[in-house]
Design brief:
This protein has 2 helices and 8 strands. It has about 130 residues and is of the alpha+beta class. It has a single domain, classed as RutC-like (60s Ribosomal Protein L30, Chain: A, 2-Layer Sandwich), CATH 3.30.1330.40. The strands form 2 sheets. Strands 1-2-3-8-6-7 form a 6-stranded mixed beta sheet, covered by helices on one side. It has a two-stranded antiparallel ribbon with strand order 4-5. Helix 1 packs across helix 2. The longest helix is centred in the middle third of the chain and has 18 residues. It starts with a strand and ends with a strand.
Length: about 130
């Protein structure tokens, strides 16, 4: 199968040696997104809820560039530097996703790029 590299200016550009997403067949692997503002490549200002929303907005932009949307996400990984923020992830996620929800993992980590408090990556299956 061929690989297609997904790029969009509506999400932060890669800050390392990776692509925003890679499509293989009907499966799209979305790279981790942190709360960077695409236009400035600076971290969004605000509390953890604002940061989580920015991450979902970034993932949504990449998903759209790949020809889908968050409704097509089948697996979501959430990385948090403070797992006490997990209830906020659930609250915000309920505004971006509808049932049936994707499979998900929540992982507590010591640190994330650019000192972010949250990062998420996803796998999307296009119909």
């Amino acid at each position: 199968m061929s690989r297609e590299i997904i790029r969009t200016d509506q999400a932060p550009q890669a800050i390392g040696t990776y692509s925003q997403a890679v499509k293989v067949g009907q499966t799209v692997y979305l790279s981790g997104q942190i709360p960077l503002v695409p236009e400035t490549m600076e971290m969004v200002e605000g509390d953890i809820e604002v940061q989580i929303r920015r991450v979902f907005d970034n993932l949504q932009a990449v998903a759209r560039a790949a020809g889908g949307g968050l409704a097509d996400v089948v697996k979501l990984n959430v990385f948090l530097t403070d797992l006490s923020h997990f209830p906020i992830v659930n609250q915000v996620m309920s505004e971006y996703f509808a049932e049936p929800y994707p499979a998900r993992a929540a992982i507590g980590v010591a640190a994330l790029p650019k000192d972010a408090d949250v990062e998420m990556d996803a796998v999307m299956e296009l119909s």
